[in-house]
Design goal:
alpha+beta, three-stranded mixed sheet, DNA-binding, homodimer, three-stranded antiparallel sheet, 125 residues, 25% strand
DNA sequence: AACCGTTTTGACAATCATTTTCATTTTCTG
DNA sequence: CAGAAAATGAAAATGATTGTCAAAACGGTT
């Protein structure tokens, strides 16, 4: 529901990179929208609750969001330069995480795995 | 150098969990120290620059620190209940990350991998 | 011990992302 | 269309972190 939420979702769909709330706000305002920053935060939170967008934290603690193609469990390969993101799979990693947890008596294992690098385009400068 | 920095380092050494700046501040003040919060932030930053402490972000974006036993590359298995942390190794994961990056033309690959779970003690309640 | 330049420290203000509050507007539903 | 419920935006409140700056602690030197 809600027009704003769809608009925010749409912005994310059109971007291959993770985007911050401020970032989305700036783009939408530039496009003539009168949306408020608060609404964007609410939309992102709702989209995330519904599993429609993924969120991760940058090194400086800012939350960034992305509309991923799949809702299945996956990881990200993110370009440090332009933010270009590729969704990747890591069956071995899933198994490893479970095993490591079990070996130390931990249960209800979850994990976060993100891979960073410089994409081919950015490497050229 | 600096007394405060050693004091902060010492607090971390005595904890198996990741700790926040505020958290460390509260403990030191309770112990009678007159240290300021600013100094703690500076100490943590310096210790991190020197590679003496690891840092990671909680889900709500707070930075938490830990003095790890090894300075070599490793990952963490963290208890969601008490924060108890075990340093773990994942050779397969390193290889996987490199391969995934290379497959997509990315260079200068790095990665973050953290495993969360409930430790045996916390599972008992 | 008194002196002096350097480093460290801590109180306080400033920043920045995010959340809350609250009154207004929009959307639904009957 | 009325009236209730949900959504919105502006502005204030939070909370972590950083910047500022003057006071305090050091270190080495007479």
């Amino acid at each position: 529901m809600s027009r704003s939420r769809d608009a925010v979702h749409e912005i994310l769909r059109q971007s291959a990179a993770f985007r911050s709330a401020q970032d989305i706000f700036t783009e939408m305002r530039a496009d003539g929208s009168k949306i408020g920053l608060t609404t964007i935060y609410r939309a992102l939170q709702a989209l995330n609750d519904d599993g429609r967008v993924d969120v991760l934290r940058t090194d400086d603690g800012e939350a960034v969001y992305r509309a991923c193609a799949t809702s299945a469990h996956h990881h990200h390969l993110v370009c440090r330069g332009c933010g270009l993101t590729v969704e990747v799979d890591g069956p071995d990693v899933e198994v490893w995480a479970e095993r490591v947890g079990a070996e130390h008596g931990f249960t209800a294992i979850t994990h976060t795995v993100e891979v960073f690098g410089t994409c081919a385009a950015c490497a050229k400068g």
